[in-house]
Amino acid sequence: MEKMNKEYPVFSNWKFVFHEMYSLDHKYPWYIAIRSVAGFLAPFIAAIIPSVAISLVEKRADFLTFFGIMLVFVLGNMIIGIISAKYDFLIKKKNYKVQFQSVQKKVISKIMTVDYQILESVEGKRLADGAKYSYCVEWNGWSRIMDMFTPFAFNLLGIIVYTIILIPRCPWVLPVFAIMSIMNVMIERKIALKGYRKYRETIWETDSRVEYFFQRSTSATDGKDIRLYRMEKWFVDVMNTLVQRRMKVWKRVEMYYFLPHLSDTIWSFVRDIIAYTVLVTQFLAGELNATTFTFYLGIITGFAGWLNGGNMGDGFVRANSEMIRCNWGINDYRSFMDLPDSKHNTDKENQERKADQEETSKTLYQKNDTDQEEISKTIYPQDGTDQTEKGVTLEFKNVCFRYPGAEHDVIHNLNLKVKAGENIALVGVNGAGKTTLVKLLCGFYHPNKGQILINGREISDYPETEYRKLVGAVFQDMMVMATSVAENIACEKQEDIDEQKLRQAMRLADIEEKICSLPRKEKTSVTNFLDKDGVSFSGGELQRILLARALYKDAPLLLLDEPTSALDPLAETAVYEQYHRLSQGKTTIFISHRLASTKFCNRIIYYENGQVKEDGTHDELMKENGAYARMFEIQSQYYNEKGGDSDE
Ligand SMILES: Nc1ncnc2c1ncn2[C@@H]1O[C@H](COP(=O)(O)OP(=O)(O)OP(=O)(O)O)[C@@H](O)[C@H]1O
What we know:
Number of strands: 10
CATH architecture of the largest domain: Up-down Bundle
Oligomer: single chain
Largest sheet: 6 strands, mixed
Mean pLDDT: 82
Shape: elongated
Number of domains: 2
Structural class: alpha/beta
Bound molecules: adenosine-5'-triphosphate
């Protein structure tokens, strides 16, 4: 796989950030320009005031003239101060907009659409975290780079203007100062980039681990085990070690930023000594009067301020090295945004292929039985939807799948055909690859070899939105949000929910009565995480809510990965019966370790080492007396013995 974490050229990142700012508000460059001119004028006026005062004294100006001119300067400085404060506020406000209205929105959308397999990988998770940090911390990424644009601009303006002022007095100053400054900036850039490359991964690793341990320690779910097993010492020790490691790295990183400042101070010292020597020599030789001498003295002193700071905040060196350092965040953001989305076609690509696909699928289905012919009519229905009342057909053709970095295939040369409307029970030992198969069907993973066809069409050929409509699933790990029951079921905002459909889904999932008994009914929050009146539902109730979610979606392909593991036996039987009714007209794949559930399915697939080992109805497989029959007998024997014990 191509390296995910890319490093973009520094200038390209600055251009990228500036472009984002500009596209959000075309007035942005003006704000920065006005603020930069104000940032330049304030120290410039302060630098020339002494020479103006001396000049007035030399000319023996009267009190009113002296006072009037000084007042103009003081008022000028005050107005500049007000303009600076106003534009600082405007720029900061716009920066927040870029961070939280534009960048945050893009990162959140990307997290939800990026290819699932990538998101699940260590590097993918790390980049997603990096992209989040790039906009939500003040000291890195977007925020800091945007804050630094203004000091960068007004300090640069100061350096240019002061150099031009100094040229007539000392013509050699330009080449000498230019060479010194360019060398300085290059050294500083090299050092800053070295520090960034050397410590970036360690910083990320320690920060993310500290964050992980902190989050787990604040979770109420984890809190039970933490207290029961006295994990607090272990947690604190781990966090202490991480924090110490982070402090060490932090010191080293700061050293990398201290070095450019040190080098700059030395350059400035040399530069100032030369400039002062020339100035004093010219003054003593009578080439300069007191006014001009004072003026140039102010300019030379101010020059160091533009470079090293002091003239209204950070100097050019600091702004430049901060903007280099903050590339960390922008690199993370851009690398993350460049990751591919799910490997589905876009709507446009799909339309272009549609004609071709229709032709192929017709030929394909003509070869199959009459049932398939019926189904082919529903592949590309005239109303533009792929929803079908008969479910969808599935076909795995020589499918191989291996997790990245794994030594063996989890699924190996799998060949399996499922007719529209069939209810399949997928059975097998732990780790056989059942959940992996469901995730492949959901399009989260992609086969390394072979094809998965839904209604004769490869999954990746469907546009993302169209494909998602085809599949409803309930997974083992329960994903519920701390919002209302209704929103959890409909996965939409309250006002967009179809009330009737919601009620029906809750009824079919056998949770309506419980929800309606609560004071706020379906508006009750799931958990009290965000709402003090929220309700903590039991595992079984949550599974029913998730089932209602799959039913509300009403997709023609229903994938149920142990959806009843948290239900009591009575509730489970009731749910099975409901499933049986609900799954009529849908293609269903049902994974369960409780083999009693398989009797509701019209076909059972015993799955082992990523391949179909046995395939048939319950009676057929029992007759075959293979792995399924053994598993079934062991389980029923266990229940019988249990039953026997209790009878005694
Ligand atoms: N993200 C992953 N990366 C690497 N290996 C994985 C990943 N997810 C699962 N596996 C491995 O793939 C194999 C199949 O896992 P899968 O979850 O599909 O099995 P299963 O049949 O659903 O198991 P169970 O019945 O216990 O739920 C297991 O050996 C598991 O360790």
